[in-house]
C-alpha cells in the first residue's frame, strides 16, 4: 500500500467509527440520528467521496429475498472497485449473505484486519470482530474510490 492509499483508508475508517452509537433506523442515513447498514456506507461515502452517485428507491427489510437479485452487489460494482475476499483491508466495504442461496443484503466497513463497523436491526452502529461466523458469510468486497483524487 502506498502512502496516499494508507491516508485514504485511515480517513474511511475514522469516518466509519464516527457513526458508532448511531441508532438503527431502516432506510435512514444521518449520523447520530439513525441509519441502517446501507445508510452507514452512504454516510461515509458522502463524507469521504462527495454526493451520493445515485438515488435509492425505498426498500423493505425483506427486499433481497423478495427479488432474488444481487442489487446491493450490482450497486457496489457501479460505484466501488471490486476486491478479492482474501484481500479485504481496512476501509473496504464487505457484503454478506445470510444464507448461501440468498442475495447479499448486509454491509459493513472493515476497520482493522479483524474488525468492522456495521448497523443492524435492534442495535446501534457498533464495531465488532470480523469473526469466522462473519467471514463465512462474506460474499463481495469493494474499495471506495480514492478520496484524495
Describe the structure.
This protein has 149 residues and is α+β, with helices and mostly antiparallel strands. The protein has one domain: endopeptidase domain like (from Nostoc punctiforme) (endopeptidase fold (from Nostoc punctiforme)). The chain is built from 5 helices and 8 strands; from the N terminus they run H-E-E-H-H-H-E-E-E-E-E-H-E. It has helices at residues 3-18, 37-48, 63-67, 71-79, 132-137; strands at residues 29-30, 34-35, 81-82, 93-96, 106-112, 115-118, 126-129, 138-143. The strands form 2 sheets. The protein has a 6-stranded antiparallel sheet. A two-stranded antiparallel ribbon has the order 1-2. The mean pLDDT is 89.
Per the CATH scheme, the topology name is endopeptidase fold (from Nostoc punctiforme)
- Compute the CA-based radius of gyration: 14 Å
User: Mean of residue pLDDT?
Assistant: 89
Number of helices: 5
Strand order of the largest sheet: 3-8-4-5-6-7
The outline comes out as globular
CATH architecture: Alpha-Beta Complex
CATH superfamily: endopeptidase domain like (from Nostoc punctiforme)
What series of H and E elements makes up the topology? HEEHHHEEEEEHE
User: What is the straight-line distance between the termini?
Assistant: 16 Å
Low-confidence stretches: none
Instruction: Report the portion of residues in β strands.
Output: 15-25%
Number of DSSP strand runs:
8
